[in-house]
Specification:
The structure is a homodimer of 318-residue chains.
Chain A (H helix, E strand, L loop, with lengths): L3 H13 L2 H7 L4 H15 L4 E4 L2 E4 L1 H27 L5 E7 L5 H14 L3 E6 L6 H7 L4 E4 L8 E15 L10 E2 L8 E4 L8 H10 L4 E4 L3 H9 L4 E5 H9 L4 E5 L4 E10 L6 H17 L12 H9 L1
Parallel strand pairs in A: 3-4, 3-5, 7-11, 8-9, 8-10
Antiparallel strand pairs in A: 1-2, 5-12, 6-10, 6-11, 6-12
The first copy, chain A, binds a DNA duplex (30 and 30 nucleotides) through helix 3 and helix 11.
Chain lengths: 318, 318
DNA sequence: TAAAATCGTGAATAATTTTCATATATGCTT
DNA sequence: AAGCATATATGAAAATTATTCACGATTTTA
């Protein structure tokens, strides 16, 4: 019999076009999804997906079910917002510290959206730079930190958001463009263009340049577009999230290269005080980030890759 | 986490106002529903039902969830109709034999509704009386029988619809009105007004009068309203389903009495050929009957009272 | 053409849901 | 008011269902 679980799966499947990617999204194994889909097809006596090689496409029946899923899950979310109102958990503060500069790109539309649904929640961005953003949570100066911090800390909960790759950005025709993958040495010739934050907060420097013991020159600017503009006009090179430069790559305004054989990856978490972790509007905020980011951001991956059941179990034990 | 199962339960709960009745509707035990509700309340950290004595009422949160349930389950049903179209199972015949005369009352609106959703299905009523309606299925002269037949037969499937009580109907102020319960003897004085069908097809006669060995006088007429009119004008008494005379009782046009200490009950089944049992439009027809009857017909009960899991299991073994 | 990735499947395991067996509370009857 | 029938809650056991694991087949990629 059809359940919401199946609908959540179908949406992930529709968005990823792959069973294993969809499985990561919904925090299950590929096998679990394979079984789910089979059960659905058996139940409706209809093919839901069509396979040409490894590429999975939805059949008309599958598309119809996705349409249902979108409508239904939307209704569910809306209901859950109303329930929060009923339980008077609809008011509060959400002062956000953003460690990752580029994240403004996706956070802004989410904030707009959030404001419409939760008019009673004070939504703010905490500006300025902070060496220890999580401390702001403790001090009560902020309510949410979006950053890479994920070390377990007393009284703090880290929700995994996603993992993304940081790519080197070059002007089209740049000499390094001939290489498929850039190494630490490749960054010694050009000026490195970054946001104006301390060195230890720049992944490329902390994880690649410093360990390799090479030297570099740095120039900073506030805005992502400004960085890209400098790169394009050959004043230097940069390292930015893949999803942040997608459009510029498409227009061949700049080109991108992997950093190191495995690539340079960064994990993003959303951290809150423990007592805030179950707030309805916070949960909705998280859910919205998840939906929007995975739907719109290119090349990101779910954190906590395998099925999450084990992890939940471990969590409970604590 | 919320699942469709919970929504189905909530609708039943809303309509019955009782956990145990709702449990019967969804073919689960009272205990199962009790657990379900508890889980929901825990999940949302909100009371869903409020109890004043034995009467269960939904809280605002509960009502909001019911609203969701109605919308969502409607969408699901609509989707499933579309899937039937996709699988080209949307065309066929549904020639219905109706054993129970009064059932026209609820069947008509259902047929109208069905026609809108399944324009490609030829929907007809097979008229006339038939000593062995199920034989018509075999002969291919009909596709559906709605009646009391439920003996297992090769190649025929009986879907349980519901159980209802047959009440004696009297004119207001009738002498027998002073009794709470009527027995076989009470039917010897007055003319018994029935539909024009053979005696053995009238439950009162077959199950009460004949076993008691009493004699009776009978007069027949086609329409339920005509029967009631005759009763009201003191030309005789009748025995009709409780839900069929609800309105007339409310207006005190007639009065009703139980027949026998336990009451006289009748079970209704929908029978089809085995090969038709999984047809989508038939399943939808069944589902609609279920929904409409339990929502609108007064005093009916689900058949197969306990949780249905055991029965399903037994079925599979065969 | 080998290596890596993706998917399907049956069996094993884990998790969840349901039932069963009671306990408790309410309402009704005498 | 006492007793009985009915309705619900709850913990534990049982049943069912969902997920993972292990592995084979197939396809893509380098």
């Amino acid at each position: 019999m059809l359940e919401l679980r199946h609908l959540r799966t179908l949406i992930a499947l529709d968005e990823t076009g792959s069973i294993s990617l969809a499985a990561q999204r919904v925090h299950l194994t590929q096998s679990a999804l394979s079984h789910q889909i089979r059960a659905l097809q058996e139940y409706y006596q209809l093919p839901i997906i069509q396979r040409s090689g490894h590429v999975v496409r939805l059949t008309d029946a599958g598309k119809r079910l996705v349409k249902l899923a979108e409508k239904v899950l939307g209704e569910v979310q809306s209901t859950e917002r109303d329930l929060a109102k009923i339980s008077q958990q609809a008011a509060g503060n959400l002062r956000i510290v953003l460690e990752c500069h580029t994240c403004f790109d996706w956070l802004m539309p989410i904030m707009d959206n959030f404001r419409q649904h939760w008019p009673e929640v004070e939504l703010d961005l905490v500006s300025g730079f902070h060496s220890d953003p999580v401390a702001l949570l403790r001090q009560g100066a902020a309510d949410v930190v979006i950053g890479s911090e994920n070390k377990p800390q007393q009284g703090i909960v880290h929700f995994p958001l996603f993992r993304f790759e940081i790519l080197a950005v070059l002007a089209p025709g740049h000499a390094l463009g001939s290489k498929k993958v850039l190494e630490a040495d490749d960054f010694t010739q050009d000026v490195l263009i970054t946001y104006p934050v301390p060195e230890e907060r720049i992944d490329l420097i902390r994880q690649v340049l410093m360990p390799a013991g090479v030297s570099w020159q740095r120039r900073t600017t506030e805005l992502t577009v400004a960085i890209l503009q400098l790169v394009a006009s050959r004043r230097g090179i940069a390292a930015l999230p893949g999803w942040g430069i997608k459009n510029y790559l498409d227009y061949e305004y700049v080109i991108a290269r992997r950093i190191g054989a495995e690539g340079l990856w960064s994990d993003l978490y959303l951290s809150v005080r423990e007592q805030d972790a179950s707030l309805r509007y916070l949960q909705d905020f998280l859910k919205t980030i998840d939906q929007v980011c995975f739907a719109r951001l290119d090349g990101i991956r779910p954190l906590s890759v395998q099925g999450s059941r084990k992890k939940l179990k471990e969590k409970r034990k604590k």
